[in-house]
Design a protein that fits this description.
Number of strands of chain B: 17
Largest sheet of chain B: 9 strands, mixed
Largest interface: A-B, 19 and 22 residues
Strand content of chain A: 15-25%
Oligomer: heterodimer
Helix content of chain A: 40-55%
Strand order of the largest sheet of chain B: 3-6-7-5-1-8-9-10-11
Structural class of chain B: alpha/beta
Helix content of chain B: 40-55%
Number of helices of chain B: 15
CATH topology of the largest domain in chain B: Rossmann fold
Shape of chain A: flat
Structural class of chain A: alpha+beta
Chain lengths: ~250, ~450
């Protein structure tokens, strides 16, 4: 291969990957826009999955553009995926269940819940199991997948009123200002909320790139639960988008 | 043992600056150099903020540094003017600046909370926690918490010590299991907490490992309110050594400055200019006995707080209140029997105590009332509002009198007894002096450091 051909191949690869980056960003924005009413954390994760998928496809396409065979790489990725899925099938089920129960099953640390025949205070939620402390001081480890299969009763006082919205906030967004805007949005919905419990935002975890937050609100009327959640999710996404753009 | 890593946070800053950050940097150092307060001129560049922060918190932290109990503590507070960071006596002071557009909302919220907890809020406050002004209040607390967490990352603190009711939400926002102490400086009466605030206030309190209040009755009230953690009452404390006997010439100078004659019998009120301090009640009570004691004069000392200062939040409460008090004096035709001194320097304050015959603490509600202790340092008896925390230390008829601050006749009766019986007043002053030891700096600092060390598992 002549130096000119090599340079051409490198340039082609670079241009393809740049195009992939643009496409990934566009798709991420489209997905973000389409699913505004989803819980912000689920929306962010879904955007991430779409983005990764586009990058993998783009990479394979770029390799083919170079005249190399991508079949072997594709095979390796597929095989690796299958092996991982088979090896940790049970754990994946629990991790997936934990992920969805985080967002959709209404209980949190400190709540008293009943799942199947087991009842106790939630003292730990890890990726695989949820640990309950029973009334007779026994620790019961319940696989997370059970929370999606079984009926779960949250026995905590006011539990029915509580809506917990998990948010992943990029560190480029100013947290105090973001919190202010979100709280003001909640204030505007106050006629639907229990006046004794103003909205509260808590930081659960944070690293250099993002902070995991939880917004807790208490509603007056359980029949409005979905509408309120969707509207707030949408509002939060809009606030975050606006503040990101300002950056 | 390694010194305790301590992060203190109070709304009120230790010092108020009279110049902007840029001016101070230009005057003293390059932009990247950490300034030390000792480089600056007190009175010209800055003033110590009046009140508990300077008299209690600063000596406490300074003592901890001096004794090696704490190593390089950090102190966060609100300070709209001046440098972002300076050091003072080994303590790094960090200043939070709140944007002007948020200052109004913050000030409104804290005033409303303060008034409600003192039982003097006239407008309904049930919806306060749902107003956008409360969001500004939350924003300020978030700024403090974010800075505290950032400093924790750099310094690995052992303990967070939060002061002032304005910062109660902080523990909720500090994302760490490290111990958190809250010191509640104002009165606490659970019956005054509006119904709609109870859940929020309770969860804010319960986010702390320890809550400290100023007297036993607040502690009982806090328990009734539903606080489940550890709670202590530690009487506020002051450094007794800085209260010296003034010279004869200093007393004469004071008399001359404020138009007090040699033969005047001075009844002294020392308090921030604020309706809750009840100066109006003192004036009315005094007016009722003024004719019986023609040589008595009521001296009202004090000016506004950090919140009402131009360097602070800029609420003009003190000036408005002074106007109303002057109007009251005119109405009662007491102009020649009254003196408003405004702010007194520490030296002048010592002279005022020396010069007076007795002091009155007329507060409608008062977190504690260290002025009574100061008065006792000079063996001067005090007539104390039964609604003040310090009332716990007053044995009625032994070391002072208690009175109902909403009843000027009650104060007038007590003034009459005290002014007509100088022997009794003198004995009461002596007895008060003995009790004042309960508020000595060493005693308070000992209780506080023991509490902190016990909490972090150190030698207590």
């Amino acid at each position: 291969m002549t130096p000119y051909e090599l340079l051409y191949q490198i340039a082609l690869f670079a241009v393809t990957m740049a195009a992939v980056a643009v496409v990934a960003k566009i798709f991420s924005l489209i997905v973000g826009g389409m699913f505004r009413t989803w819980a912000p954390r689920v929306r962010a994760e879904f955007q991430k999955i779409v983005s990764i998928t586009i990058w993998v496809i783009g990479l394979l396409f770029a390799i083919q553009q170079l005249g190399l065979r991508a079949d072997f790489l594709l095979l390796l990725i597929g095989l690796f995926g299958v092996i991982v899925v088979i090896a940790i099938r049970d754990s994946l089920e629990n991790i997936g269940a934990k992920y969805f129960s985080d967002v959709y099953v209404p209980f949190k640390l400190g709540d008293v819940v009943q799942v199947g025949n087991t009842s106790g205070k939630v003292i730990e939620i890890n990726p695989i199991t949820t640990v309950l402390l029973t009334r007779d001081s026994k620790l019961v480890s319940v696989p997370n997948s059970l929370f999606l299969r079984e009926k779960v009763i949250n026995k905590t006082q006011y539990a029915w009123e509580e809506i917990v919205i998990p948010i992943t906030l990029s560190s480029v967004v100013d947290l105090p200002k973001f919190e202010s805007e979100v709280l003001k949005s909640c204030n505007r919905m106050r006629r639907y909320l229990d006046k004794r419990f103003p909205p509260i935002m808590t930081v659960k975890r944070r690293n250099k790139r993002s902070a995991e937050l939880v917004l807790t609100i208490m509603i007056k009327d359980p029949s409005k639960r979905n509408e309120i959640t969707e509207e707030l999710n949408q509002k939060i996404s809009e606030i975050e988008d606006k503040m990101r753009r300002r950056k | 043992m390694k010194g305790l890593g301590l992060c203190v946070s109070s709304q009120t800053p230790l010092v108020r600056f009279s110049q902007s950050h840029e001016e101070i940097v230009r005057k003293y150092s390059g932009p990247n150099q950490l300034l030390d307060l000792s480089q600056m001129l007190e009175g010209e560049d800055y003033e110590f903020t009046a009140g508990g922060v300077t008299r209690m918190v600063f000596p406490l932290v300074k003592h901890m540094v001096r004794e090696g109990i704490s190593e390089s503590p950090h102190w966060i507070s609100l300070n709209p003017i001046g440098p972002e960071k300076i050091t003072a006596s080994g303590i790094t002071l960090h200043h939070i600046k709140l944007e002007t557009e948020r200052m109004g909302g913050y000030g409104y919220t804290k005033e409303s909370i303060w008034k409600a907890l003192h039982g003097i809020q006239k407008e309904p406050v049930d919806s306060l926690l749902w107003r956008d002004e409360f969001v500004d209040f939350t924003y300020y607390n978030r700024l403090c918490s974010e800075l505290a967490m950032q400093l924790d990352k750099e310094n690995d603190f052992d303990l967070f010590y939060v002061h002032d009711f304005q910062q109660l939400p902080m523990a909720h926002m500090l994302h760490t299991l490290k111990p958190k102490i809250f010191r509640w400086h104002i009165p606490f009466d659970e019956s005054l907490v509006p119904e709609m605030w109870k859940q929020s206030l309770s969860s804010y309190f319960n986010a702390y490992d320890v809550v400290v209040v100023s007297c036993g009755k607040y502690l009982e009230s806090l328990r009734r309110f539903g606080y489940k953690g550890k709670a202590h009452h530690i009487y506020p404390y002051i450094n007794q050594d800085i209260y010296k006997k003034p010279s004869r010439s200093e007393v004469e100078e004071f008399n001359h400055k404020f138009g007090i004659s040699e033969g005047d019998r001075v009844v002294l009120v020392v308090a921030r200019l604020d309706p809750i301090k009840g100066q109006d009640g003192a004036i009315k009570g005094f007016a009722r006995v003024a004719r019986d004691f023609p040589d008595a004069k009521l001296v009202v000392a004090g000016n506004g707080s950090f919140s009402s200062s131009k360097q602070g939040i800029g609420l003009s409460k003190a000036e408005r209140w002074l106007g109303r008090l002057r109007e009251l004096v005119r109405t009662l035709k007491m102009e020649d029997r009254m003196v408003f001194t405004g702010h007194l320097t520490h030296k002048e304050l010592q002279v005022a105590y020396e010069r007076c015959e007795l002091t009155v603490l007329p507060s409608i509600l008062e977190g504690f009332g260290l002025v009574v202790i100061e008065s006792w340092f000079y063996k001067k008896p005090a007539i104390v509002s039964s609604m003040a925390g310090v009332a716990e230390l007053v044995k009625h008829g032994e070391n002072g009198f208690l009175f109902d601050p909403r009843d000027p006749n009650d104060l007038a009766d007590k003034l009459s007894i005290m002014l007509s019986n100088q022997n009794l007043a003198s004995v009461m002053g002596e007895n008060g002096f003995k009790v004042s030891g309960q508020c000595y700096l060493e005693r308070g600092v000992k209780s506080e450091t023991e509490m902190m060390l016990n909490l972090v598992g150190g030698p207590g």
